[in-house]
Amino acid sequence: MNYTKFSDNIRKILLKKIADREIVAGVVGLGYVGLPLAVETAKAGFKTIGFDVKKEKVDSINRGHNYIGDVADSDLKMLVENGMLAATTDFSEMGRVDFVAICVPTPLDAHRQPDISYVESSVKSIAEHLHKGMTVVLESTAYPGTTEELVKPILESSGLKCGEDFYLGFSPERVDPGNAIYKTKNIPKVVGGLGADAGEIISAMYEAVLENKVFRASSPAVAEMSKMLENAYRNVNIGLVNEFAIFCNRMGIDVWEVIEAAKTKPFGFAPFYPGPGLGGHCIPVDPCYLNHKASAYDFRFSTIEASTRVNDRMPAYCVERIGEILGRRFRKPLDGSKILILGVAYKPDSDDYRESPAIRIIDKLRTEGADIMFFDPYIPRFIHRGNVYEGERELTAELIRRADMVVIATPPRKVDYEFVRRHAKAVFDTRNAAKDLADRSNIELL
Predict the structure, then answer these.
(1) Would you report the helix, strand and coil content of the chain in percent, each value rounded to 5?
(2) Domain 233-445 - what CATH class?
(3) pTM
(4) Which residue numbers are catalytic?
């Protein structure tokens, strides 16, 4: 289909509206992707409306109260007070919007199959208020083909035609929560539009908001597949180094030193580091989206499947190591031992525990009869499988001494690891967080 039917006059009008900051922007989904994007869009001079089905999020934003770590409290408060940013649960406000980015979750269901119901619901709400000249961009991670096969038909159910009445494209979110260097503002953007005009308009909007020039892919499918490749690359390389960690332990070789030696090569090697498993929304989830699409083409990503098996095994391997260390050092079984877990988020200094390997370790340790305590300065409590887990309020010497072993699962940067080492009977460090300590005699590495 030809998606370049927009008149040159409409294209020029929209480009001028972007340049003059006359576009009204919308962001659907005000989580760790959507809210930072909404804030940056408003800071760039565009009136922005955030849409979310959760009233508590909407009310918090409209009070100027921030709940996302990567957003500055002062920025949010200023933008709300200046009338540049507002939030609502009322999707009829979509009629005021010229450019809307969809940033809703795309989790897995109980069978580890893609759950795109949030995307579908959001697009249906947009379709009810779609108007001529509107631009819709999907940012939520999805399998290749989602934009054209799912989003486009729903929007066209409004009676308007893609490429004739509205623009459509895909631009994958690349947010890395907690990253001190790369944030929404300075992460390069990839845009795949349905047609050259769509690509130009969407790119112009992102370039007006963000710092870097946009990479324009030839289609939404290319942009969608690029997101799959980015995270498959990480999945495979983490799986490789995790397998090296297991084998190096058997040989009595320090895998962390092996990596330091290998990364001195100035070409052909990029360092990845082992850990207790994969967590978060992207790396452990995206392969399932990719395989979902691959199955329709009678294709299997054997490399990704192999690395996923290794990465999925890591929490159980960590529990095996904990049991082995307890037996070797203290002649104690896991059953009845007190274990203190440091960090339950999926990554350091985050309050996000989706797919966290630390929680899988806790589950396995409890199954083995261990008595579990945890401390995470960002997660005082968490809910898992309907159960509420309360953390320790303070990391005291007494708490550390009570434990038969301290397990550094997701190391918070605020923790003094020399303090932990000094008071611990034994430490199992899955992330090499204590690498700079002079005395590591009671520390064992993954």
Answers:
(1) 40, 15, 45
(2) alpha beta
(3) 0.91
(4) 282
